[in-house]
Amino acid sequence: DLTRAARANPASRDTTPLEEAGPSDVRDLIAAFNAYRSRISTMLSDKDRMLGAVGHDLRTPLASLRVRVEGVDDDRLREKMIASIDEMTAMLADILALARSGAGTEMPERVDLGALVGELAGDYREQGKDVAVAAISDAAVRARPMLLKRALRNLVDNALAYGVRARLSVTTKGGEARIIVSDDGPGLTEEQIRTLVEPFARGEQSRNRATGGTGLGLSIAREIAGGEGGALTLANRPDGGLDAVITLPLT
Asked: How far, in Å, are 9, 65, 82, 84 from residue 78 at the CA level?
């Protein structure tokens, strides 16, 4: 029991104390672990409150700036200023999403991956974007559906940005479900595959948000997958393009 609790994701905020049982040295260890996990939960809660305050305090002046900028007479200057404010607002939202990816009030539930993937692809097609569903295996996982959908949206957005279109599929193997987002882009080098899931890393190095973004999309997807007990991996396909795969345990 102690080993399982120690291996659990601390972001789950499970602070239910383990029963202190066994020899005296094991009981002492369990007591220390219970205290340690409680301190971690308190630190994470403090971090969430701080981030909420920072987010509120920064959004307010940004909104005020946006209103004032609308009064600038020079059209070219006004558009550039608005674009900079929009980029700052979007970057702030991405940073807060990354920092809070393990928190939130959404409860885990049984999620039918075929239905979730189909709904997500439909949303993109309604926007005129080339997102289709390929092979879908019958699979269900226990996860937080809104967070999982956010992770998949980040992967689909990357596929559309670098590969024009995205293909979604679901497979199962060895007690695990694999949600695959495939693109037809140029793929990645081994170095990029190792580094792109780190915060602020980008495959496209310009400061243009339309192509480079903030470099947080894959990091957010990785943190969400980890928080659901799974993992995010990137792999080049032999026939070209990239597969971004979220692996989750089946229910």
From this structure: 46, 11, 6, 10
State how far the alpha carbon of 98 is from the alpha carbons of 85, 119, 197, in Å.
20, 24, 12
Give the span between the Cα atoms of 48 and 46, in whole angstroms: 5
Distance, CA of 6 to CA of 17 (rounded, Å):
12
Looking at residue 250, the DSSP 8-state letter turns out to be: B
Eight-class DSSP state of 214: -
What per-residue confidence (pLDDT) applies to 211?
Answer: 45
Asked if residue 177 lies in contact with residue 147, where contact means CB atoms within 8 angstroms, the answer is no
* Residues forming beta bridges with residue 142, ordered by sequence position: 110
Whether the per-residue pLDDT at 100 is higher than 70: the answer is no
Cβ(82)–Cβ(63) below 8 Å:
no
Question: What does the pLDDT read at residue 103?
Answer: 55
* Interatomic CA distance for residues 220 and 101, integer angstroms: 7
140 in Cβ contact with 148 (< 8 Å): no
Nearby residues of 229 by Cβ (< 8 Å), 6 or more positions away: 9, 248, 249
| Residues sharing a CB contact under 8 Å with residue 79, sequence separation 6 or more, in sequence order | none
Tokens representing 210 are 């339309």
Q: With bands split at pLDDT 50, 70 and 90, how would you rate the model's confidence at 212? A: very low
Task: Identify the band that residue 49 occupies on the pLDDT scale cut at 50, 70 and 90.
Answer: confident
Check if the beta carbon of residue 232 is closer than 8 Å to that of residue 245: yes
